[in-house]
Amino acid sequence: MKRMAIGVWFVFSLLGQDWGPAQFLVGKWAGEGGGQPGQGSGAFSFSPDLQGRILVRKSFTEFPPANGRPASRHDDLMIVYRDETTHALRATYFDSEGHVIHYSVKPSEGGVVFVSEGAPSNSRFRMTYTSAGKDT
C-alpha cells in the first residue's frame, strides 16, 4: 500500500494538483452583466502557482462615477489550496479594503461553491461559480 501511495504522490507532483470541481476555473475570465446599486466591469484569473500546489485568483472590478461618487476600483486576491490533513479544498481571500475571509470549497451542480467559515451569528459570504459550457 505504501508503494501505491508514494507512486500516486509522485504522479501528482509531476502533473500538478488536481483541483477537482474547481479545475474548470483555471484561466482568464472577463466579467459580464450588471446589477444594482452600481454598474461595474472587471476580470479575474485562476492560475496555478508554487509548482501547481496552489491556485491564485486575482480579480478587479472598476466602477464608473455615479451619484456624485468618483470612479473606484476593487482588487482582490484569493489562494486556493488543499488542506494538508483532509485534502479538502480551502481558500483564503484578501482584498484592497482590508478584508481577509477563509472559505471552505465544495462541489455544486456544474460548478463549485466557496462558503465563508465562522460562527453562524457572524456575516457569511458565498461565491458560486457554475460552468455554462466550455470557456463560459
Folded structure, characterized:
With 136 residues, the chain is mainly beta. The chain is 10% helix and 45% strand. The chain has one helix and eight strands.
Structural class: mainly beta
Q: What is the helix content?
A: 10-25%
Give Rg in angstroms.
17 Å
The rounded distance between the terminal residues' Cα atoms is 41 Å
| Helix and strand element order | HEEEEEEEE
The average pLDDT score comes to 84
Q: Which key terms come to mind for this protein?
A:
single chain, 136 residues, mainly beta, eight-stranded antiparallel β-sheet, 1 helix, 10% helix, 45% strand
Report a brief summary of the structure.
The chain is mainly β and 136 residues long.
Please specify the SSE layout and strand pairing.
Elements: H1 2-15, E1 27-30, E2 41-49, E3 54-63, E4 72-82, E5 89-95, E6 100-108, E7 111-116, E8 126-130
Antiparallel strand pairs: 1-2, 2-3, 3-4, 4-5, 5-6, 6-7, 7-8
